[in-house]
Amino acid sequence: MKGNRAIVNNKLIHRGDLWRRGRAMSERIRLIVIESKMTLRDIAFFYSEKCPHIAKPPDYMGADSTARPHITNSSEYMGASYREDLAKVIKGIRNTPRYVNAIEESWGLPIDEIRRIYREDKELEAKGEQLSEDEINKFVNWYIQILKTKRAAS
Question: Which domain of life does this protein belong to (predicted)?
Answer without folding.
Answer: Bacteria
